Amino acid sequence: MKKVITYGTYDLLHYGHIRLLERAKELGDYLIVGVTSDAFDKSRGKLNVKQTLAERIQAVLDTGIADQVIVEEYEGQKISDIQKYNVDIFTVGSDWEGKFDYIKKYCDVVYLSRTQGVSSTELRTSQHKFVNMAIVGCGTNSKKFYHEADNVTSVKINGVFDESTETDQWFSDIPDLTRYNTLEDSFKDNEAVYIDSLIDKRYELIMKALSAGCHVICTSPMFLKKEEAENAFALAAEKKLVLMEAIKTLYFPAFQHLLLLVESGIIGDVKDVEVSCSQNPKKYDLSNKYENCFYEWGGLAMMPIVKILGTDMKQLHIFNADNDEVGSFTRGIMQYDSCIGSFKVSKGYKSESTLVITGSKGYIYVPAPWWKTEYFEIRNEDLKETRKFFYEYQGEGLRYEILDFLELIDNSEFISKFTPNDTIAITEVVENFNCQKESR
Q: Are 39 and 73 in contact (CB under 8 A)?
């Protein structure tokens, strides 16, 4: 028996997929089809897959062409599968020609020409809303957001607005990007905006964007006061618009897997979440208190605490090591009924920027810098039993939060990974910190 194996995502299965499967089957007697897992697709930058793994597997089975369907979960699995199933021929579409020549050491490799005139990308684009966006504010992530959006189907960044004179300088290498003259111009002909301004400007910009009928994704933390957060989410709900806090790490494949493992109880009952974010740049501005380390890192540092321990915080203690407006070193303790979350943020001082989640059966360790989570470990008393997990993310990582933002716009039943209650919980801490600074 001559065995043939092929792989694909098979999202929105169409005639082109079916024809490739038929021709693959004709190469031998027994066809094995590998369907990529959701996590593997995201880890290699394949975004906007619309169907679940179960739906895609069922679609392949329903063709009646495959003799066996397996799941592809990691880079390098192809060689393992070829050896495991005694495969004679590996085949894939001709657009990958040369990419898999290394497999010729293990079996024959055949590249099949694809059916012209049909593609999953075109189907996804035609079936789902295309979103035009503007960038408001020239913050540290605005240019990254522009470039990352290029990797997500069905979104286009049309222009940028900043009330300062920094726009041309910040986007000098993108001359074709429209520079809007006014904030109102950035709302015209755009369904959504990305806001990346200083925190004291965000609430006003968010409310104006929502009032103009635009969906909003905004740099974290979004608000200085709990009342502002409540008002903004109320307006978004009234107008049936999406308001989303942008914390890219939350959307990484590795971090999502980490949260699932915690929820599964693999480390038992969680007692403590300890987070550190530090940076020691050569230069940083001490003139504006809204550029301090807490307003820059606070939302990110509190995110794991809120996502793992919840929003029902009982007590809060915030300590500022430096008695200045900038607040270059801040430690916070968030106390719950039976567990504690602690965070440390600093600019101008350097420490080990790790994330540690303590449980009754073990703990999860994410090495520095934890906010670039690709790798983490589950440890216990016996270090020989340490389990290691690696899920790579692509680019700067913002593409994953952009994808979720588009899903929220496109599908009213899609569940947000960062809820309004999560944002309000973080905002309460921000407000407490801000009140301390003002009453100093």
A: yes
Instruction: Answer yes or no: pTM beyond 0.85.
Output: no
Span 130-141, pLDDT tens digits: 899 999 999 889
Separation CA 186–CA 161 (nearest Å): 7
- CA pair distance 169, 167, nearest whole angstrom: 5
Give residue 180's pLDDT band: very low, low, confident or very high (50, 70, 90): very high
| Predicted confidence (pLDDT) at residue 117 exceeds the cutoff of 70 | no
Q: Which residue has the tokens 């921000």?
A: 430
Question: Over the range 74-91, which residues count as b (16 or more CB within 10 Å of their CB) and which as e?
Answer: eeebbeebbeeeebbbbb
> What is residue 114's predicted lDDT score, i.e. its pLDDT?
74
Report the amino acid identity of residue 407: E
What is the DSSP track for 356-424? EEEESS-EEEEPSSGGG-SEEEEE-S-GGG-EEEE----TTSHHHHHHHHHHHHH-TTPPPSS-HHHHH
**CB neighbour list of residue 262: distance below 8 Å, 6 or more residues apart:** 270, 308, 357, 359, 364
- Residue showing tokens 């996502």: 307
Angstrom CA distances, 333 to 44, 55, 344, 379, stand at: 37, 44, 9, 24
Instruction: Return the ∠ at Cα 149 (arms to 372 and 411), rounded to 5°.
Output: 95
